[in-house]
């Protein structure tokens, strides 16, 4: 499921659209997952203008650089991700990409997600909006001049841009398991996220410090296999300092190389 990294966060930006999405066969009805804890919008682990820059590597080779920015608006938050190819990818298949994600007012739920992406062989310009009153999403492909409407059953869903921030906004302890609803590629999907433990590691330029290891796995709505594991600081900032994305074609690593306008380090 593309939504499991930085769209899925950073790694998904490298492979999004290049893998086929297969519809999941009908399954027996299951009880709905437990609702997620409410997000305290007055005590978020980031502030207006926080900027986090990551280096994405495929094995020992640099592949891309991505910068996340959180922006506070009058009654909501907007998250942006700017990506550019690096290393061998820049030499062989250069690309640039810009994602945006808009939250509605509390409670936490995404109301809009979009992308501008430029590659040698294609251009992507699209936007998806969610109408919770109508329980439907509308995806606009501006390049092909197409519009598709799909059903949203959950009362609150994330997009591939807001998912990482939602994980950061919640309290975690080892053993916690939570189900996130994510919309992507004209449909609603699910991701199971679990806190696997507390560890002490040094990653990149970051010194050894207590971290929470959190793993996200795509479940309903996709047959793609893989997982995203994130190491976030075990403090009120929940800074993601390292991540590993594993999927059928290999694995990517992401390391936080620069952090601007983060909240003060807790005493």
Explained architecture:
- The N and C termini lie far apart (38 Å).
- The protein is mainly beta.
- It contains 3 helices and 14 strands.
- The protein is globular, with a radius of gyration of 18 Å.
- The chain has helices at 9-15, 87-92, 163-169; strands at residues 51-58, 61-72, 77-85, 96-103, 110-118, 123-131, 136-141, 146-151, 177-184, 187-203, 206-218, 226-233, 240-247, 250-260.
- Residues 1-23 have low confidence and may be disordered.
- It has a 14-stranded antiparallel sheet with strand order 8-7-6-5-4-3-2-1-14-13-12-11-10-9.
- The protein has one domain.
- A hairpin with a 4-residue loop joins strand 2 (61-72) and strand 3.
Instruction: Quickly count the helices.
Output: 3
Number of domains: 1
- The portion of residues assigned to helices is under 10%
Task: Provide the structure class.
Answer: mainly beta
- Tell me the number of strands: 14
What is the first-to-last residue Cα distance?
38 Å
Unreliable stretches: 1-23
What is the mean pLDDT? 87
Percentage of residues in DSSP E strands: over 45%
Strand order of the largest sheet: 8-7-6-5-4-3-2-1-14-13-12-11-10-9
Rg, nearest Å: 18 Å
Provide the succession of SSEs.
HEEEHEEEEEHEEEEEE
User: What does the overall shape look like?
Assistant: globular
Largest sheet: 14 strands, antiparallel
